[in-house]
Amino acid sequence: QVQLVESGGGLVQAGGSLRLSCAASGRTFSTAAMAWFRQAPGKEREFVAAISWSSGNTYCPDSVKGRFTISRSYAKNTVYLQMNSLKPEDTAVYYCATKQGIATMFPMTAREMYDYWGQGTQVTVSS
Prior knowledge:
The chain is mainly β.
C-alpha cells in the first residue's frame, strides 16, 4: 500500500503563488510516476502535471504550462507543485497521485493510469 498526503493549499489572490507538497509513504520503492490532478466544483477531475520518477521528465497541459512546475525529491519521497501567477480558474481541490510499478507510457495524463491517490488539498484563488 502507498499513502499520499497533500499539503500547502490555501487562499491566495490572483497573481500569487503556492507550493503544494505530496508526501508518499508505504511501499513506494517502485514508483514510476507521480502527478497532480485538480477538481473544481461541478467539473471533472483534470490533469495538471506529471513527472517520471526515474528520469525526472515532466509534462503539463497548456492550461498551466509556464505557470506550474512539478518536481520531486527522492530523499523525501515527495512530489511538489509550484504554482505561480495563479488565476481564479485554478481554484480547485488538488490531488496527488502515483503509479507504482511499470509505466508503459509517458506522459500519463489519465486518472485511470494512477493507482494511489491523496485526499486532496484546497486551493482557492480570489480575484
